[in-house]
Amino acid sequence: MKLKGKVVVITGGTRGIGKGIALEFAKEGAILVLNYFNDDESARETLNEISSMGNYCTLFKGDVSNYNFSKELIEYTLEKLGRVDVLVNNAAISKIGLFMDDTEEDFDKIMSVNFKSVFNTTNSVVNHMISRKEGSIINISSVWGGEGAACEVLYSASKGAINSFTKALAKELALSNIRVNAIAPGVIETKMNMWMKEEERLELTEEIPMGRFGSVSEVGRAAVFLASKDSSYITGEILNVNGGF
């Protein structure tokens, strides 16, 4: 129970990688506040699954790309549970297509959901963590944040921004005993990859040294490591979970 009694806020926490992280945190005894945007059915399923494990979990629906909402999410958690020990910035969207077809609207939406949301929630919680001289912030990046991906230029740029943000903020908050790290997943088995044809999946699998897609639970266990005392001297790092990709 590495996270027993720890209050954890996870954005985009009710499906995909976010759900995988939430379930692994629940196994370690965390108290969970899960943000989601619009999929009520997945949110209820995740809530029921975690509650059946005997863990406290609550949902907070809304758009973390909006600063005022993000502030409300943190304030709600502080009022209800008294503190925030761990913040996991996971909310993200993607768009597959040629850069020449991207629009200003595409840019604004992807950067707002993927990167501005990280600023919003982190900026809203950081004073609280500084006052307690304790905290762990985990940003979910992507292998494409470091390598870049054709036909996902805006997504890659948003994740690259998260990497730089993570490294810079970690230096700023280190003396306050607040650790800031990121996880850069490789190809993970989620609905986000459902668009690929079987032939494309096989070609991509052949490029992965471990010969398979990763699982959300594998990302979740990496997040548990970064949230727990096991990583007490680690900050400013981008942890690659990619099967050697």
Automatic annotation (TrEMBL):
Which InterPro entries has this protein been placed in? Answer: NAD(P)-bd_dom_sf (IPR036291), Sc_DH/Rdtase_CS (IPR020904), SDR (IPR050259), SDR_fam (IPR002347)
Q: Name one GO biological process term.
A: monocarboxylic acid metabolic process
Q: Name one GO molecular function term.
A: oxidoreductase activity
Q: Name one Pfam family in it.
A: adh_short_C2
Keywords for the protein's UniProt record, in alphabetical order:
Lipid metabolism, Oxidoreductase, Steroid metabolism
* Gene3D superfamilies the UniProt entry points to: NAD(P)-binding Rossmann-like Domain
Family to which this protein belongs: Belongs to the short-chain dehydrogenases/reductases (SDR) family.
What NCBIfam families would the database entry show? EF_P_mod_YmfI, PRK07231.1
Q: What is this protein called?
A: Short-chain dehydrogenase
Provide the species name. Answer: Clostridium sulfidigenes
Output the lineage of the source organism: Bacteria, Bacillati, Bacillota, Clostridia, Eubacteriales
